[in-house]
Amino acid sequence: MYNIDYHTHTNFSVDSDAPMEDMIQKAVALGITEMAITDHVDYLYPAAPYPHQIDYDAYMVTFNRLRDMYADRIRLVFGVEIGMGAHLADTVRAFVSRYPFEFIIGSIHDVQGEEFHLPPYWEGRTKQAGYARYFEEFLASVRNIDEFCVIGHLDYIMRYCPYEDSVLTYGDYRDIIDEILKTVIAKGKGIEINTSGFRYKLDTIHPSLEILKRYKALGGEIVTVGSDAHFPHYIMERFDVAYAALREAGFKAIAIYRDRKPVMLDL
Fold this sequence. Notes:
The protein is an alpha/beta fold. It has helices spanning 20-29, 56-69, 89-97, 119-122, 127-144, 174-186, 209-217, 239-249, and strands spanning 4-8, 34-37, 40-42, 75-83, 103-107, 150-151, 190-194, 223-226, 253-258, 261-266.
């Protein structure tokens, strides 16, 4: 198992209050050799109370200082997690062109401004309809947007489902999930294994092992592993489960990134 975490957040993300140096120091203490810092940029969230945008002038001063300070102990990857939307292709392209990102996660955190972590998204919608709408937005986004390296936590909408049975089963959404995965593969992109599901008592990685196996069966090879840690104590959480899932699904390597190009490391 590699001591590498490719999905972390700091207090430059509105949903974390962890200073970047605290995250780095914890990673060093854990023996991590490479960590991607992927703070949130999301154009669909309202300005308040969730302004998911970053003052990158201040960010890069901090990142560059700490990258150099800790260079002999850990490699820090300049990344971002972008909240995608089908109509945001030009916005995302313009944003990405302004900064030297090495790694980009493309995620869906809401659907056309409807925030599925809030009750109004689910009002008048069944679980199936809510999940289907989410996947439709994901598919349209990966078709329209090229500026991502991997897609983030593909099935994590179940985290916010208000129904007693929140389980998201691949077979119920087979056709559209397959189209998302095929589009990602055709573009030479990848997916992540995100271990945050355990933190939210879902007892699963994102995506599920079933979806991970389907990605492999369709020809997918590029996978990163990330904790989605917003606080130091979650860094590299349950990576033993992630690596076991990779092996069970038949993967022989994981990906790290250099200049937004995957570099494969044998398992």
